[in-house]
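User: Here's a chain of 395 residues. Predict its fold as tokens.
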Amino acid sequence: MYLYEGEYAYLHAYRGGLKLYNEGGNRFNIFLAHRFEGFPYDKTPSSLAGMAERGPGADFGMSYQRNSPWGAVYGEYFHDVSGASFGNELRLGYSYEWRSGRLMLRPHLMFAARDTKLNDYYYGVRPGEATALRPAYRTGGGVNGQVGLYGAYGLTERWRLLGGVTATRWANGVRNSPIVDDRVQISRVLGLMYDFSPEHSAWPEHKPLIVKVMYGKSTDCNLLPIMTFRCASTKTADQTGISAIEVGRPFIERLNGWPLDFVGYLGLLHHNERGLQQDFWQIDAHMKAFYYGFPWDDHVRTRLGLGVGLSYAQKIPFVEQRDQLARGRNASKLLNYLDPSIDVSVGDLLGVRALHETYFGFGASHRSGIFGTSQLFGNANGGSNYLYSYLEWAM
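Assistant: Prediction complete.
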């Protein structure tokens, strides 16, 4: 799970957005969010046998929240932009945050009005899917109700224990569907969080924009052998490639006084599928840590980097289709993204002071579904690796 709260932007696991207004206890956002609803990817139950797939969606939304001493009221609007349901949802809610020492508790109450398109897509039965035990059914629109409790406990200055539970009562039209159990839906979450928040201001204004261009080819090497320099072959049967440009800004410099910097990147990547399928684009967003505390750093700045974030591709890359099909596994356009790299300062190598912040290096572009454990990534188990070379400089 990735949590980032900035002055103008935020990323809350499955939702990322921009803060258009955030003053005087009033906050207005626009965002993109992943919708987790849909049929199971594996082990389809008999009640859904023979039905067309209902996949998760992506929503564009707007939200308004009013904070006050007596709690927070909020409204959120969602519209499916992925082409799954084309449905709409309006949520109205209230929450109150209570703190005592290291403990924080936040109960909430929320109502969600959903239209016919949204409910029918996920919980309706089309005429062509009807059977003797599963008649055709239209859910219609309706209102869900939800109550929940979220909590956090500070174990140390940086580590926090997180937990939460929600109970959702679905609208009558959904509960009466032949493919839905008529019961209250209980959801639980438990986790551990490390807080990387800097003690100084992030995104320092005096720092320039970072630009990175790269070119690479697909590899059959797994990520761990790549990172330990035990495999670097790009001789594959498909010979597909990538080229990309990324822009970034320094986020944290010398975390806790260590030789460790964090940089945020947003990249546009082009897949060259060499006629195996149509070429396409991919968007990557990640936070990258750079370590540079080597004994020779005063002579030649050398950085080891590791980026973690999200990757969304217009199409499933050919190498992922091939490997997942052979294993009988799912594939997903949205996957976890890892970006390990090593580079050196071009200016230090050439003795040109003006190029000190220009780096040449090698890296791996890695997409994966976290071993099939994440519904956000389509329960995909596996992904793809591309080895690339790059040049990065500060504008």
